[in-house]
Design brief:
With 152 residues, this protein is α+β, with helices and mostly antiparallel strands. Helices cover 18% and strands 32% of the residues. The chain has helices at 3-20, 101-109; strands at residues 33-39, 42-43, 46-53, 62-67, 70-73, 82-89, 91-92, 117-118, 131-134, 141-146. Strands 1, 2, 5 and 10 form a four-stranded mixed beta sheet that branches. Strands 4-3-6-9 form a four-stranded antiparallel beta sheet, with no helix packed on it. It has a two-stranded antiparallel sheet with strand order 7-8. Strand 1 and strand 2 form a beta hairpin. The protein starts with a helix and ends in a 6-residue tail after the last strand.
Length: 152
């Protein structure tokens, strides 16, 4: 073999080994999820839902935006199969449009930071005890009916 053939062979082996490591991993099997989130009977206008592996279930967490009460996570970005703790987060920015630069400049000049009021009680986010079992064999279609007052 001459040096050109050796170089081509090494290059081919390098490319082949790089491609072998780029495939999808089944280390954490995932599933698609979708559903509805309401707060006091009305669709949650905006927010984020998080699926966090719970108990002996391990893997990365998954999250998705909630818009007009609806969330949808495709399988490629979905939660891992098994039990997941659910966190639902939503804030209200006081009604200022995000692209209202004049209002933003006035707030900065007055030393006011952006006001965000948490609209979903902590029992559904950091302190959430909500869990769902994610399945590979059936649809993962969930409804979360939240209330703004804690149950006694």
């Amino acid at each position: 073999m001459n040096s050109k053939q050796v170089s081509l062979t090494l290059c081919f082996c390098l490319v082949l080994s790089a491609l072998t490591g780029c495939g999808s991993s089944d280390e954490y099997p995932r599933a698609a999820v979708r559903g509805i989130v309401t707060l006091d009977g009305d669709p949650l206008s905006k927010g984020v839902i998080r699926f966090i592996p719970d108990g002996e279930n391990e893997g990365p967490q998954a999250s998705a935006p909630i818009r007009e009460g609806i969330f949808n996570v495709p399988v490629d970005f979905g939660p891992v199969i098994g039990t997941n703790r659910i966190e639902i987060i939503s804030t209200d920015d006081g009604g200022f449009p995000e692209d209202d630069e004049e209002a933003f400049e006035r707030m900065q000049a007055a030393g006011i930071k952006k006001i965000e009021k948490i609209t979903v009680p902590s029992q559904y986010n950091k302190q959430s005890k909500l869990t769902k079992s994610i399945s590979a064999e059936q649809d993962n279609d969930f409804t979360f009916a939240l209330t703004s007052t804690a149950k006694k």
